[in-house]
Design brief:
It contains 9 helices and 10 strands. By secondary structure, the chain is an alpha/beta fold.
Length: 239
């Protein structure tokens, strides 16, 4: 990983609101190209709001959000996406009336200059989706819907992925498949910022961790420091 390169994502002094509600209070974080970084924290800490703020999906935003060195704090969501950012929200947004493959083909490619993954590459990474390609969106299991939600982003050419609680409520075998997916994406040079409640899922995957509390970062450490940080994490998260 080249630390001298321009960060894929750099957030400084980020404040964000939903209407009158002030949800982020000076967030600071950096994600380098090719890294997997996890935001840890209790529910309501501001982790999802951080991902939403990066995409311009909160109300007012103040501070700095640089994506590949470009300041985007005043940009609308569609312009941010075209910098090669893919957001996978917790609710997944699968179209019930479309087949698995139709859902997959739905998003247009982003104007990033980087081609998205081909259908063949996606089916190689997600064999379940190939088997279920003609099934309606609602007929897919929760795990298959989650795979489809991520796969749909990979089709667009996005290289910076914002993943919100992708392992939540899924069977262990699916969680393992998602872990393999993240490892494979890192191997292909993708950059991942993920919000995760499932510490056991996140711990072996991430290069670095940020712990968020009350809309700001209260701890930040690398994967090598994880064993020494467990007592602090127990205190902050009840891990």
């Amino acid at each position: 990983m080249n630390q001298t390169s321009t960060p894929a994502l750099e957030i400084k002094g980020l404040n964000a609101w939903y209407g009158e509600s002030h949800v982020l209070h000076g967030m600071d974080l950096v994600v380098q190209p090719g890294e997997v970084v996890t935001l840890l924290g209790r529910n309501g800490a501001g982790r999802t709001s951080t991902l939403r703020a990066v995409m311009g999906l909160t109300g007012a935003r103040k501070g700095s959000i640089r994506i590949h060195g470009v300041e985007t704090i005043a940009w609308p969501t569609h312009r941010i996406a075209h910098l090669g950012v893919g957001y996978c929200p917790e609710e997944r947004g699968i179209f019930a009336s479309l087949s698995c493959e139709e859902n997959l083909l739905l998003p247009p490619p982003l104007k990033t200059g980087a081609p998205g993954m081909s259908i063949e590459e996606i089916y190689e990474m997600f064999p379940n989706l190939h088997e279920r390609r003609h099934s309606q969106g609602t007929r897919l299991s929760g795990g298959e819907q989650q795979m489809l939600a991520v796969a749909r982003i990979l089709r667009t050419g996005a290289r910076l992925l914002l993943l919100d609680e992708i392992s939540e409520g899924l069977a262990p075998v699916i969680v393992q498949a998602l872990a393999r997916m993240i490892t494979a994406l890192r191997g292909k040079g993708y950059t991942v910022l993920m919000v995760e409640q499932n510490f056991r899922f996140a711990a072996p995957l991430a290069d670095r961790f940020y712990v968020v509390e009350h809309g700001r970062v209260v701890e930040h450490f690398g994967a090598a420091e994880l064993p020494d940080k467990m007592s602090v994490l127990n205190q902050l998260l009840g891990v």
